[in-house]
Fold:
Amino acid sequence: MPELVLHANGRTWTLDASRSYTVGRDQQADIPTIDRRVSRRHVTIRCVGGTWVIEDLGSANGTFADGHRVQRIEIGHGSIVRLGNFSSGMRLDFTEAAPAAAAAAVSGDQAPAVAQDRAAAPQGEARPQAHPEPRPQAHPEPRPEARPQPRPEAHPQAPRGARGDTGWGTAAAAGAPPVEPHPRAAEVPGAPAGAAAPAGAAASVGQAAAPTRTAGPSIARDPHRPAAGDPHRPAATDADGPHGAAGTHFIDRSPSGVHRLVQGRPMRIGRAQDNELVVEGPHVSRHHAEFRPLPGGRFEIVDLGSHNGTFVNGQPVSHQLIGPHDIVGVGHSTFRLAGDRLEEFADTGEVFFAARNLTVTVGRGKTILDDVSFGVPEKSLVAVVGPSGSGKSTLLRALTGYRPADRGHVLYDHRDLYTQFAELRHRIGLVPQDDILHKELTVDTALKYAARLRFPGDTKAAERKARIDEVLQELKLDVHRDKKVSSLSGGQRKRVSVALELLTKPSLLFLDEPTSGLDPGLDRDVMKLLRGLADDGRTVLVVTHSVAELALCDRVLVMAPGGSVAYFGVPGEALEFFGHESWADVFSAFENHRDDDWGGRWRASPQYARRVAEVGSAVPPQQPGTLPAQPPARALQPKRRHWVAQLWTLIRRYLSVIASDKGFMALMLLLPAVLGGVSCLVPAKYGLVPPPPDSGFRYNQESGTILLVLVIGMSFSGAANSVRELIKERVIYERERATGLSRSAYLMSKVIVLGLITAMQGAVLCAIGFSVRQLPAEGLFMPTAVEVCVVISALGFTSMMFGLVISALVRTAEKTMPLLVMFAIVQVVFTGVLFKLFSSLGIEQVGWLMPARWAVAGAGTTLDLAHTMPPWNLDKPNEVDPLWAHTVSQWGIDLGVLVAIGLVCGFAVARLLRRHEPDVMRD
Structure:
């Protein structure tokens, strides 16, 4: 039978019927790819009984033909199969070999090369039909025991079919400026000088060429510094020295694509296909930014109101003149000017991550993290283990930028994370120990709201759904998408938290104790999941107490008591290094010899010399005469241009959470009804009005008691609504704040929703409480019931704000209830109904701070409580509380002060929320 020819990723293979072929990201695959949607061993192609078939090998994202997912199908001339996605996945085109045509295609200088390739290929091996592009080499591993990395294909194919659905294609629309291969990308290892690049090496219009690495020193090690704030000068200049004024950052790999800039013609960048340069990614707006030419051959970058911002050297800018040493960040891609060309560096996960000399001190100079240095190879799984008090949590917060180290640097792709946090935070995912999803929502609903908050506002619902579907399928959660998060097992909830972080396609993923509280079987499942995430093209770092599954990791970092590194390397050599047979013995040694210099022992070992080279190579050494490395600086935040959209999403999510919590809804309705009913139990013959003249009574003592019950009931109800709302979402808020959530939008969503609920409760409380009571016929300027209800509802609002203060202040939810009870009791004391408050120095002034004091005053002004209740001194009947004066102006003052106390509480909550944010996000 004729040989079958396979065309994929710009290359051609002739398949021999005598053997089978595998396609995948595995380094040993016959047809390799770097498409992260393709599994390591995705499909196999073989000839069975004279018929060629392709069979899926249990891939995560599936194999598709004619838009349908298939397990095994027959293939032949004209067959088209996609891997990983039905419309935009890796495309496999099959044709039958035509000897005459093939011979005709081999001509000129290519003929000897092809003949040589075929002659050298073993029998049965897939033979390139034409001289292929040189396969890019993986980033050189400085460690001989490093796990082999998947080999990128020579010319990755840009997704095309799904552009109408996702809008995240990589190819530019027609009319884009021409794209040239980078000079180094065109070099063929071993080829004579001046040899031309092979056919197909040049990228198509708008399409990025494959990241090509050549042997020898890095081709681009240019230093940069953050923009100085003047948009009319380049952000970095040669005068800044090799390291710039803000520390070292550079790009040490060849560009993935080169685009020509034309003078007089701006180049717009974005996700939409009508841009001159299309950049894919969930962080990229449809029309994101624009390179604009200026006189003298210069260019400036202008942000077009993007959702996640445009960055120059890691700092957000609205417009900035670009120099030759500046790095422009858009989504997960970075750009650099090289004459009239724009070099693009796509973040495909092949990034180097390193910690260098991290040190954290607390209190009076106590060191809890001691000179920690290590380098993480790309696309690897690293475990951090150690006994209690070894600084694992401190290290995690330092590595993620939540709490920058006092000394040292964290380097992401050779860029300082601390000084460029505003940009790099979008490339880092963090799964805390606690769940970062609302347990009351379904998996699908929770991810939809998360996508709304993290994706640009111009992302269509279909695009968000497509990304959610892709993540759920990757993590095998699609069967659980309609289940509430609270109904899932511990391992499944952890997968959902991982799914949330994967929505934005981070290259680096951190997890804090993901196996805590899980059964041993689920423990292994979670670690296998992380192993798969690393194999799919991400670097994963997990802090864990479990050592049972360390064999699945590429590296293990062992922290010793005191926060120093006791070992960093492959797990299989760790026990031998410590001289013990089990990890239990190692941890016992840590406990029994806490004062030993474990860090010194590590630094004196031969293994340390190998590992430190990884970190040392991350940043070139300082040159004499250059500026010293700058200390970690607080990264600026991009200006939030979509505050209203965030607020609306947060309000909708909060309402969904409340609607899904039937118990909370029932309590909200029941509480004011019960408290209003309790007020009706107070015997009061004359209600809330003075006794008639013929009754024989001058005063109505019960009127004050009724008002006291109503006020305290509303005060307790308002505070109870909010006292747990912030503490229960603290982990969620911390993570969302790090991804760009507006603090004020988050707080306002709570205030608006809880304010409406509290106002409704105030109306129910007053309606029930007044239903059996006689009220004055007229109020000051409105009906009496309306005036009193307004004051009671304002009291509920202010009490709700006090509840938020308590919720933001405490560290655990258990502490909220005692503080709630204390708040309610204090309000009872300072109502001014139980004893005389005015004219009591000290006590009166403290009472001014209490919402109940002003609420009773406001309602008492309407009810003329000063003359309805008996005076405190019968001998001085005209000595009444001045806050109860029966005037419109006094009613306005009482209400105004009551609301003002609530607003002050709001500012206090905003300040307290800062304590639960990454240090570099605080403003």
Observations:
- Residues 40 and 507 are 18 Å apart (CA to CA).
- The mean pLDDT is 79.
